[in-house]
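If your schedule permits, I should be very grateful for your opinion on a structural question. Thank you for your consideration; the sequence and its tokens are set out here:

===
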Amino acid sequence: MIAVTKGLLVILLFVLPCTFTQAQQELKVDLDTRYQIMEGFGASDAWRTQFVGKNWPMHKREKIADLLFSQEYDEKGNPKGIGLSLWRFYIGAGSTEQGDNSDIKNEWRRVGCFLNENGQYDWTKQPGQQWFLQAAKARGVEKFLAFTIAPPVFWSTNQKAYSIKEDPHMNIQEDKMDDYADFLAEVISYFQNQKDIHFDYLSPVNEPQWDWSNGNQEGTPATNEEIFSFTKYLSESLQKRNLHTQIVIGEAGSIAYLTGEQDKPLQGNQVEAFFAEESPLYIGDLPNVKKTISGHSYFTTWPVEKLVTSREALDEKRRSVDKELGYWQSEFCILEKTDEIGSGHERDLGMNTALYVARVIHADIVLAQASSWQWWTALTTFDYKDGLIYLDTGDEHDLYNRTAMKNDGKFHGSRLLWTFGNFSQFIRPGMRRVGTNFTHEVTQENVLVSAYHDESHGKVVVLLINQSSMEKTIVIHDKNIQYDRKYITSELHTLDYEKVEGNKLTIPARSVTTLTGKVKTN
């Protein structure tokens, strides 16, 4: 037992809490430990850009586009937007032309089709989406991806953009799969040759494991065998047109379907099905097929133990099948119910959802080796955690009136938007993830750190996620890297710039900080 005098006790009460709060951690980046090359951070135009891009006042459209795509900075050094490097453009199936007969009640989820039933193309369709596509190009977005989730309605088995109940097969007439492939290739060709938009990637299936028969939106399931056949047709169609667009396969509704069959024996275990050389469905040697499998992080992010184990399992499966096979996380928003942020219901413009998603992004990149990470929808009209930018009427008594919002409305950035910008604005395509002295362990409290190196220009980016309610002090121990800037997102900051001075960094509580610098040259 140690005797403590009254005076000493008072000193301890004041000193000890300060010592714990200001506990320092060292940061050292290891440029020689090299991981995946990053290929872009993106989001999709579904479904809201179709009205916003067509009808909303131009100054609002331009501001929304700046928030999503701009790589410029204001006079204070703050980014004007999040600088997405990949934009997902949806090729519609024609439910808009069907109107109410489409059975899709929400017209924001109906989409037009460039091809008419008479075989003629109408390139004036999807004007709102085309506006955002051009706005992205004008602001320097590097990569474009076209995706489709259902064939044109006149080629479907039920003449609808949604599928037949409890049928795992693609909703398409038996003799129309090659026509569907030609249609998609023709869309790619038109935009490249007539609009100077080169689609780097084409994603021809989306969440093929789901039912898609509820009529809430366009969509179709597909078996692995159908995806294999469709990919062969697409490869041939792209080749015939001398197009270099790469086909990205997967978009599994959950990454669990990439590693195992789960409850879908005809639609699961997709890593092996498509990229094991001994598989009868092997597509790795087809022209225009990118050697990458894509999946969605839904229903695998809570609890944190599941977040970790499912991504470790994916990385192990990928490596065991083909060490050269890449992985993309190609769609995510909040769907599952969690103890930490609740469910997807009720929008959240603050840091709770933002930090949750930041942890998911970190785990997907560091544990599953994702080289691209894509959010679901850039704009949302719902009271739901599914958007980067939130749209409403501005009328508290009728906030989510989507009829009123077709022509105008209010838009709101979110801390999630700016947190995503901590990644997308600074980790550019071609940068390589490198090592740090921080552990790869992912918990709810620890500081999560990842680092990236632009080898051709000597730039270094470090991403620090402070999940705790205490600020952290980070001491830089990189003698060969000169850091100059940091950008902070928190409840008080929206990707705000601060100059780096000295070798000690204060990382605010519940924040995401991006640190930028350059490798010193002798």
